[in-house]
Every structure is written in C-alpha cells, then in structure tokens.
Specification:
This protein has about 240 residues and is an alpha+beta fold. The chain has three domains: about 1-70, Orthogonal Bundle (Arc Repressor Mutant, subunit A); about 80-130 and about 205-240, Alpha-Beta Plaits, CATH 3.30.70; about 130-200, Alpha-Beta Plaits (2-Layer Sandwich). The protein has eight helices and eight strands. It has helices at about 1-15, 20-35, 45-55, 60-70, 105-115, 145-155, 175-185, 210-225; strands at about 80-85, 95-100, 120, 130-140, 160-165, 165-170, 195-200, 230-235. It has a four-stranded antiparallel sheet. Strands 5-6-4-7 form a four-stranded antiparallel sheet, sandwiched between helices. A hairpin with a 2-residue loop joins strand 5 and strand 6 (about 165-170). Helix 2 runs antiparallel to helix 3 (about 45-55) and helix 5 packs antiparallel against helix 8 (about 210-225). The longest helix is centred in the first third of the chain and has 18 residues, at about 20-35. One of its GO terms (biological process) is regulation of DNA-templated transcription. Belongs to the TACO1 family. YeeN subfamily. InterPro entries: Integrase-like_N (IPR017856), TACO1_YebC-like_2nd/3rd_dom (IPR048300), TACO1_YebC_N (IPR049083), Transcrip_reg_TACO1-like (IPR002876), Transcrip_reg_TACO1-like_dom3 (IPR026564), Transcrip_reg_TACO1_YeeN (IPR026562), YebC-like (IPR029072).
C-alpha cells in the first residue's frame, strides 16, 4: 500500500512547484463540475469532490469563487472530458485525463508529449485495464484503529486503512468518497492530507536508472499541458525523488 500513497505524494509535490498552473486547472475543473449540475456543492456531488480536492492543494478562495460565479452566470464554454493512454520506457504505463474546449489541440499536444520524449500513445483501453479507480483519503491525528472502528460503526465499506508516512490513509471505491470523508469529519477532523479520486495501478514497475530521465520528461511534458488535469502511471519512483 505504501507505493500507492508515495506515488500520489510525488505527483502532488511536483505540482506544488507550479501553483499557478494547478490553480488554473482547478478553476476549469470547478467550472465544468458546476455547469453539469447545481453550482452548490451540497446539491452537486461531483462539484463537492472537486472542492474537497482543491482544499488539499490550497487553491485560493478567489479562484474557486470566480469559477463558481462564471458557472452561475453567462459562462458558455464547452469542455469535453477525454482520456488518453500510452507507454513510457520499458513498458511503463501512463493514463492522461483531460478537460478541453479544443479536442484537436489536446490530442496533438498529448501525442507530442509522448513522442518527443521517447514514449508512444496507445489505443483506448490499452492501459486503463491495468489500473483501478479509487478514492484515497489521508488524515493525521488519529490512529488506524480509531479510523477502522469509526468506519465500521458508520457502516462505510472501504478497501483498506493503513498508516503511511505519518498519515492514516483510507482506500475505498470512488462512490464511497463522500461517505468516508463525512465519517472522518464526524471525528473532528477538518483537514485532509490527501483527498483524491485517482487511478491506482494493479502492479508497479521499477525502471532502470538510465530510463528514468526519459520517463520523467514524458510526465513533466504532460503535466505542463493546460488541458491535462491528471496524469497517472505505474512507475515506482526512487525514494530520493519523494522530497
């Protein structure tokens, strides 16, 4: 289980280095979620998930409010959710989730990020079947036993509850995201170290040292694209890259 949390942490740490890009991406994601239903998180569960995720990235309230106001007003931009799948060096697998208002631009940009850095695109389904969708909720200040007892008492089904890197981490099916968070909040927890809907690989691979630079270039190039919201992969990154 530790590998799962470490990879999420690595991804988040890399994004923290370019907050303005992350905030812009969250602005679009909040706008799209709000336009799909009510711009009220209590009435729109998809929007509530995005806003909970935004908290863990410290997205400023001004950006959140601007996106919600745009959705409530005359904002008529149409975004499409698209998933791309591909391969890095040594058969490493990568999933790219995007939100775009220009499909041709996004497809060309994602393809270029792969091809120019030693990777290649795959067809739909060529990679995703090796990953499982999951909700991942992390917290501090409570023990694993406390959280397990609480979830049992609240009758919330989860896949696992473990201690990793000084956090208690709960893995659950995506549809249990709100149930897990609501249960934990009832313990007095108000902040989460991670609150993600993610794709977790069924198996991890370790790349030889000489292949890591090429792999990291692919991931960095994808993360830098304005239309890319999430990048998932099955590479176990070296311990020294976690800081």
């Amino acid at each position: 289980m530790g590998r799962k949390w470490n990879n999420i942490k690595n991804k988040k740490a890399s994004k923290d280095a370019s907050n303005s890009k992350i905030y812009a991406k969250f602005g679009i994601e909040i706008y799209v979620a709000a336009k799909k239903g009510e711009p009220d998180p209590e009435a729109n569960r998809a929007l509530k998930v995005v806003l909970e995720r935004a908290k863990t990235y410290n997205v400023p309230k001004a950006i959140i409010d601007r996106a919600l106001d745009k959705a409530k007003g005359s904002g008529e931009e149409n975004y499409v959710e698209l998933r791309y799948e591909g391969f890095g060096p040594n058969g490493s697998m990568i999933i790219v989730d995007t939100l775009t208002n220009n499909v041709n631009r996004t497809a060309a940009s994602v393809r270029a990020a792969f091809s120019k850095n030693g990777g290649n695109m795959g067809v739909n389904g060529s990679v995703a079947y090796m990953f499982d969708a999951a909700a991942v909720i992390g917290l501090t200040g409570k023990s694993v036993d406390d959280v397990i007892e609480l979830l049992l008492d609240k009758d919330v089904d989860v896949r696992d509850v473990v201690e990793e890197d000084e956090s208690v981490v709960v893995y659950a099916d995506p549809e249990q995201f709100h149930a897990v968070q609501d249960a934990i909040k009832s313990m007095g927890v108000t902040e989460f170290t991670v609150a993600e809907l993610t794709m977790i690989p069924q198996n991890y691979v370790e790349l030889p040292e000489e292949a890591l630079p090429s792999f990291e270039k692919i991931i960095d190039a994808l993360d830098d694209l304005e239309d890319v919201q999430q990048v998932y992969h099955n590479v176990e990154l070296p311990e020294e890259d976690e800081d």
